[in-house]
Each structure stands twice: as C-alpha cells, then as structure tokens.
Design a protein that fits this description.
- There is one protein chain.
- The protein is an alpha+beta fold.
- Helices cover 16% and strands 46% of the residues.
- It has two helices and seven strands; from the N terminus they run E-E-E-E-E-E-E-H-H.
Length: 118
C-alpha cells in the first residue's frame, strides 16, 4: 500500500538552485520545499542515506543572500523527464534563514496576501 505524504509542500514554478556548500558546485534545483525537507531535481541520482552540505543563493536587492544547511537523502529516482532525477531530502536542524525562506515562499505562493489587500 502506498503511503500518503502528510507534510504540506509548496511547489516552486521557478526553480531555486542548490549548491554543494563545500565545493560551491551546482547540485540541482528545488522542486518543492517544506520546513522538514525538499525535493531536488538533478542531472544525477543522489546517494540515499548520505548527508549533504547544501547552499542556497537567494538574489536580493542588496546582493546574494546565502543559506547553508545540511540534509540527508531519503530517496532518489529517475524523473519522467529523461536525464533528470528527483531526490527527497530530510533537513538536519534547519537554520533560521531556511525557516524564513519557507515562510516567505508560502506567503508568496498563497492567496492570503491578495485577500488581505482587497
């Protein structure tokens, strides 16, 4: 029996790039994100069970803001798009900046702020 996800995730229509924090090389793009984890879309499969040191580079009006965090790969499988892989990661003690990013994305991709201004 297939289990259903109980964690709310927010789909990102424009992908955020994820980098290896140690090498600064691109790992892939975020497919979706929550406070507990993220799905990475990459050109290579990820090693299940491995812990990865990751970095997000968020562009802003005052330059690029960097968010460093660690995550453990829970699963990895080929995407429906040939040459792409989807991998699920569980965050290891996400920093406050990561929590703020998820909250900001949740607000941005919701209709709550539109209803409040109407």
């Amino acid at each position: 029996m297939k289990s259903q996800r109980r964690i709310e995730r927010h789909q990102l229509p424009y992908y955020l790039k994820v980098f290896n924090r140690l090498t600064d090389k691109p790992m892939g793009s975020i497919g979706n994100i929550s406070l507990d984890g993220l799905m990475l879309i990459s050109q290579l499969p990820m090693l299940v069970g491995a812990r990865f040191e990751m970095r997000l580079k968020i562009p802003g009006t005052d330059g690029v803001h960097v968010i460093d965090f660690a995550a453990t790969c829970q699963w990895s499988r080929e995407d429906v798009t040939p040459g792409s892989y989807d991998s699920g990661f569980a965050l290891v003690a996400p920093p406050a900046e990561f929590v703020e990013l998820v909250d900001a994305l949740r607000f941005y991709f919701s209709f709550h702020h539109l209803a409040a201004s109407a």
